[in-house]
């Protein structure tokens, strides 16, 4: 068994996951990064790639087993793999919503269930779940995605109370819009309706502008490293403007906050 700390980062082929994996490697971790198919990826110093489909129970179990087989331990699991979802709630079928939730919520649960027995056995470990600013505020035309991140928030905080006595912490990193390929990978509505078409186009412009002006993935990676290494970790690590919005949500009267959400999304008052 190695004494070097070991991290497993899901969705590490690009964007936040890639930045986080490299940042953890620079911090001294042995890092395993995952993607659905990794054979085509260029080698990265300090990073070992594993194939993983977070929607498959056996794949999740096999990925964690591969880490344990190669290193004998797992100290940090970063549940980063996820997918965006756009369109009015009514425009997303139940099947489409199920697909998003299978990745964003059940994927987190699958990976956590696979990792927890090893962390409990070694008496230590941290599970870092990528939430979002949309884990605690609404976002019109992203209802399914917001629902998935709200679910990750509740799951993580509840689980943290269950496993803390075994030396394991479950922590949240909450980015705002980040300058990645997120926009290009958003699942589009599978049953679009004419009644929402104009506002959907407004939303798409808003998201494109927000992503372009968003935080660098390295900023989010720094928060993930902090969550992995802080001697006394915080339950939540808001990133960028998330901290400001979180404070507003707590302190600003509900009616004013509601009006601001509608104004930002160019919705009628």
TrEMBL record:
Pfam families: adh_short. InterPro entries: NAD(P)-bd_dom_sf, SDR_fam, SDR_oxidoreductase. Keywords: Oxidoreductase. The keyword rRNA processing does not apply. It comes from the Bacteria. The keyword Oxidoreductase applies. Coiled coil: none annotated. Gene3D superfamilies: NAD(P)-binding Rossmann-like Domain. Transmembrane segments: none annotated. GO terms for molecular function: oxidoreductase activity. Belongs to the short-chain dehydrogenases/reductases (SDR) family. This is Oxidoreductase. It comes from Nocardia uniformis.
